[in-house]
Amino acid sequence: MTLNQLYYAIAVSRENSLNEAAKKLFISQPSLTGAMHALESELGFDIFIRSKSGVSLTTKGAEFIGYARSVIEQYDILDAKYISKKGVKRFFGVSMQHYTFAVNAFIELVKEYGCDEYEFEIRETKTHDVIQNVKNQNSELGILYLNDFNKKVLGKVFSESGVEFTPLFECSIYAYLSKQNPLAVEKLETGEMISLEELDDYPCLCFDQGDHNSAYYAEEVLSTRANKKYIKADDRATMLNLIKGLNGYTLCSGIICEDLNGDDYCAIKLDVEEKMTIGYIARKNSIISEMGKKYIEEISKYENNILQ
């Protein structure tokens, strides 16, 4: 087993294609194919499943790639420090559903590590893309939620994608509204919860999931409930504008980040027993990086910010 073989295997797993990986590595496809067959023969198991549509990792292959990435990362650091003496940036990427607190945790991570020696990437995106980004190693971690409704279906999707979910904290369900919304004004004065029936006269806002608009992929809980007024948006800024401009609402975890969203909004507890569990997905058997662990630590702090 050589370092080049590890580099090659990581490239193939990232591109899901021997041809595309060969182009990125500036070698011929036959040479890459031969190197992968030799590595698999030495290991005694297949790293990849090959098909007409491309390649994907086997269960053992996914575990192997996780260790290979860790070895290569450490080698690059040693090479930069003691051999080539060139600065090499370490990479950390995270994908997430539209959670301000997850963005805030990312900001704190970047502040601590800085951008001189590290390269960062954040993707606030659709649920399916969060899973795919982690599956394809474009992101080390993915932040999303599970509840009683979606956990069986998404659990199957996770398994098929070679990722696993780790819970961080549990939240009740809140309606997120403008403080100028008449219903918000009333509830903020009385301290009462909001019922679903009281929300019926206001536009229900949700994030568009593109080609995967199944209720199981929805970022909002209670996604199967019929709403008289229903509007989809595809980014958080637009969502905030609709909440304020149309007195709309969306459903959330109740974690408020005024530093990013401002103080024009509020979260009022919904009068339901439903819960949601915020957590992260990572590739099965992967070794979480130093920055990944630090990001998880930062995001876990928001458990203390959950409204009661």
Keywords:
single chain; 308 residues; 5-stranded mixed sheet; 43% helix; elongated
Protein model, in words:
With 308 residues, this protein is α/β, with parallel strands linked by helices. The protein contains twelve helices and twelve strands. It has a five-stranded mixed β-sheet, with helices on both faces. Strands 10-7-11 form a three-stranded antiparallel β-sheet. α1 crosses α2 and α5 crosses α12. The radius of gyration is 22 Å and the shape is elongated. The protein starts with a helix and ends in an 8-residue tail after the last helix. The mean pLDDT is 90.
Distance separating the two termini? 54 Å
The coarse silhouette is elongated
Q: What would you call the structural class?
A: alpha/beta
Arithmetic mean of pLDDT: 90
Total DSSP helices: 12
Task: Using the CA coordinates, give the radius of gyration.
Answer: 22 Å
Trace the largest sheet across and list its strands: 4-3-5-12-6
Major beta sheet summary: 5 strands, mixed
Give the SSE order as H and E letters: HHHEEHEHEHEHEEHHEEHEHEEH
The total strand number stands at 12
Uncertain runs with pLDDT below 50, 5 residues or more?
none
Task: Work out the helicity level.
Answer: 40-55%
Strand content: 15-25%
